[in-house]
Amino acid sequence: METQALLLTRRSVYPRQFSGEIIPKEALEKAFEAANWAPTHKRTQPWRFIVYSGAAMNQLIDQWIKMAKRNAEMKGESWTEVNEGKFNLMRQSSHIIAMACHYTGMVPEIEETCASAAAIQNFWLSLHDQGYVGYWSTGNGIFGEEMHAYLGLAENEKALGYFLAGITHEPVPPSIRKPVDEFVTWK
């Protein structure tokens, strides 16, 4: 796909729209190769990806449910089948990828965070170019200590979100953006 078209057609597609089909490992490897070419100051390559599929993905979702139930109880809220159903829709994902940044101390943290975000965008665009879809989520306790430990992140690493990857056969609606002139100042 032409670069401009690729950039303008990438969309968030939610797990409820996923078919449950599996993205081939080769497609994911190609997307990770694209991620690896994100800009990075001093070539620190701080991005980290933890890929969950099959039973491991279901265990991750079970962990999310356990944490959400506990949080609901702590707030005095009831847990319903509707709550459970929202989490179970995520089982339609092909893969769930936990994304993190490894801070080396060689450059300011913000530079490594931005480099990691660029790697995630490269990954997403590569999947989109191959005909796959996804959603970058920052929910499900991703920034908490419990998930930090569950993901096996080191002290100098921070989670940046989950990428829920999938296949859809549903039409993906166009997005609406503000006009460029609203956020660009020419001097």
CATH fold descriptor:
NADH Oxidase
What is the percentage of strand-forming residues?
Answer: 15-25%
Highest-level CATH class: Alpha Beta
Please name the fourth-level CATH homologous superfamily: NADH Oxidase
Give helix and strand order, one letter per element, not per position.
HHEHHEHEHE
Shape from CA axes?
Answer: globular
Determine Rg (CA atoms, Å). 18 Å
Helix content: 40-55%
Biggest beta-sheet profile: 4 strands, antiparallel
Q: How many independent structural domains?
A: 1
- How far is the first residue's CA from the last residue's CA? 33 Å
Could you tell me the mean pLDDT?
95
Strand order of the largest sheet: 1-2-4-3
Q: List the total number of helices.
A: 6
**CATH-derived architecture:** 3-Layer(aba) Sandwich
Query: How many runs of DSSP E, i.e. beta strands?
Result: 4
Low-pLDDT stretches: none
